[in-house]
Amino acid sequence: MLSRQVRVPSQRAVPTILRSPAGRGVAVLLGTDHHPFDRLVEWAATLAAGSPDPWFVQHGSSQLHPELDGRRMLGGRELTRLLGSVDVVVTHGGPGLIMEARAARHIPIVVPRDPALGEHVDGHQIRFAQRLDERGDIRLVNSLDQLREAVELAKVMGRIAADVPTQRAETTVRFGELVDQLHQRARRR
């Protein structure tokens, strides 16, 4: 039986998914926002239950489903190790985690938090994710069925080739522009 965590010779255990015999692993990252994102945790539990692949959930303020492995928060090195050890990354619409996943050569699957469901204060994650999806930088999903399909596609497609630029700097600049635009629109309303 595979362990879902690897103990490294240091003071802390770094959550690293051991690859299943098929060579897969899925990380679900909810970030640090104080709003619960139980919808994504439940979707992850549903998909993990029928998967031979190990799943790890960084769950933030949400309750971790009893059938899932995970941690509330990850440090920078822990996140880097986790992103390097998995084949699929699912994240909320936070720009930091999206950029970290892209820097690790993933095309992240993004489920933006929905303010109508109490998952965030406004719809900026939805608008930001739509823009990145249009550019092909992420795979935007809004339902369990879409998530299931996107995870399977990511397993087949793999990561971005090492020689393909991740556009991290360009995306960060563009994110700043989008935030400015959103604030201007909000002030006009």
Could you explain the architecture of this structure?
The protein has six helices and six strands. The chain is globular and about 50 Å long. The chain has helices spanning 38-49, 76-85, 95-103, 124-135, 144-157, 168-188; strands at 26-29, 55-58, 69-71, 88-91, 109-110, 139-140. It is an alpha/beta fold. Strands 3-2-1-4-5-6 form a six-stranded parallel beta sheet, with helices on both faces. Helix 3 (95-103) runs antiparallel to helix 6.
Question: What's the SSE blueprint?
Answer:
Elements: E1 26-29, H1 38-49, E2 55-58, E3 69-71, H2 76-85, E4 88-91, H3 95-103, E5 109-110, H4 124-135, E6 139-140, H5 144-157, H6 168-188
Parallel strand pairs: 1-2, 1-4, 2-3, 4-5, 5-6
Helix pairs in contact: 3-6
Question: What are its keywords?
Answer:
6 helices, 6 strands, 10% strand
State the strand order across the main sheet: 3-2-1-4-5-6
Number of DSSP strands?
6
Instruction: Name the helicity range.
Output: 40-55%
User: How do the SSEs run, as a string of H and E?
Assistant: EHEEHEHEHEHH
Q: N-to-C terminal Cα separation, in Å?
A: 56 Å
